Amino acid sequence: MSGPEPEWPHLRITDQPIDAPDEAGPEARLVDIPATGGSVETVLARPHRKWSLRWGVLASALATLGLVASVGFAVHRTRTITTTTLRPPAPAGVDAAGCPRGDNCSPTLGFYTLLLDTLTKPLPGASGVLAADTYDASQQATLRSVRLFRLPHGVVVTAISQCRPDATAMPSWSQNLSGRGPALVVLVRPGRPVGCATAVLAQVPAGVPVPVAELTALATRPDFRP
Amino acid sequence: MIEAMWRQRLASGRAWFGLAAGLALLAVIALSTGLRSHPTHRVRLVDLPAQHIVPLDPAGCPEHVRCRATGAVPAEATRAVIRHFPAARAQWQVTTSAASGQVFRQQAVYLLGPGDTLLVNSECEPGGTRPGVRRSSSSAQQRSDLAGNQIALISLYEIVVPGRPGCSTELLLTVAGDGLAEHPKLLALAAEPAVGITG
Known about the structure:
- The complex is a heterodimer of chains A (about 230) and B (about 200).
- Chain A has about 230 residues and is an alpha+beta fold.
- Chain A has a domain at about 105-220.
- In chain A, about 15% of the residues lie in helices and about 35% in strands.
- Chain A contains three helices and ten strands.
- The model of chain A has no long low-confidence stretch (mean pLDDT about 80).
- Chain B has about 200 residues and is of the alpha+beta class.
- Chains A and B meet through α1, β3, β4, β5 and β6 of A and α2, β1, β2, β3 and β4 of B.
- β3 of chain A pairs parallel with β1 (about 40-45) of chain B, so a sheet runs across the interface.
């Protein structure tokens, strides 16, 4: 086929034999069009297709892309986000003031009570230096009492009584509970309820006899406990 | 025959447009599903292992440990106290430790003046794996004057500073009056690592 291109865009010039319109589609037909030099050419013409193959493939490709994007979006939106949180166990133990970790404690004055403290009454010549308690507002209880006082002959005594809810029965033990100074005397006695105990520590100067009876009585006094 | 029919259908644009319409419908369904859905948030809690703390008795000795007490604390601790309270005089010092040398408690009481004392008590509980929490508190013995003013007779300031895991140090200041002049010194002393158990 030679000559200029037809001016009708809805006509498509084909090389198919003009006697085989069936293979070109049911809608194809033979038409006469003017050619160069006033002649007429008979061509096989197909009408412009409403359902173009090219546009159909393009639409399918676009739809495929859209489907992939939509599925990806749906998968993204329906995903499960798992956050792992490390949970520490409940605070355990007490701090240096005898306050359970996490509780609200405060020191309380025992100074005036110390002056009248029955603790020192059985100890002739005792003079108080320090008295402090740790009060736990969370439990509404005094958990530790510390008393420091001096005895005659330069003996310095610290009595500490404490109750720990997390403790089992405290064992008794002692150190240097006899003889004469210089010595650091330690005496620990369990109390009631379980978890409570009293420790009496005394610094005894050289040559001074250890006041065993007084210290033992102090460690076992039922009224000296938090 | 059927193959030829499909080949013919695929060759026509109508089939491709049908396919595109089906895919577009599926895309719309997936899009609407995504728009209606929200990510599911799930929190997974993992419990950290519990601490197996061995409590100290009132003398500062843990259970099942043979302890000994000595009447001194490290000189660095005393020097730190004197740096901030030059008039401090040690009234009481004791260190409780195991035979292996592991220190469980250091306790010292310093006399700062008439009626004014400073207690420095540092403890380490075996098994403690996490440091404690710093806390501070105060209390006072007060009276009211004729004008209704509250006058502090004796004040107590306490600071507990955490140290190594399981360890903490208590600083307890007892002073006559409101103790406002002494309190900054106590805060400065609390920042001294030497007052705690360092070994």
